[in-house]
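Name: SMI1/KNR4 family protein
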Amino acid sequence: MDPFNEIKSHLIDGKLIIKREDGYVEEESFTFYAPASETESKLLPSFAPIELLSFLKLHNGADLYVSPKYSGGTHLFSVKEILHYSKEWECPDNFLPIGIGLDGLRIVCQCYLEKVENFIWVGEFIDFEDDYHNLNMNYKTWLERYVAAQGDPFWEK
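Structure predicted for SMI1/KNR4 family protein:
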């Protein structure tokens, strides 16, 4: 699964002209990091979603929709960062941090091994007891919609 194939095919020196929902147009940059090794992938818990593992085997992290003027954008974590932020953000056992979005929003994946389900949570500070930040969509759907929305926080609409 690589929802970025279309974007990558249009990049020039890692940049692409993006038209935002509010009408402004800007050249934004994208960086896709080298794939995670098999050894690195095995460091993740067994409940990590298959789609997340597939992404990490293609790109062990990425910086998306970064404005040269305003910075911002979204950073999708590498395996090492997932493990680091799991501890730093004090994520419960079935949650994996997957990135940091605009304005420092935390992006976390709630995983269920027995149900083969996962849900994306997004928020500045996530209270893992209250599902207010649960977007009620899985990793694959969230990533596809994020790309379709050209990096805009579609869940806020």
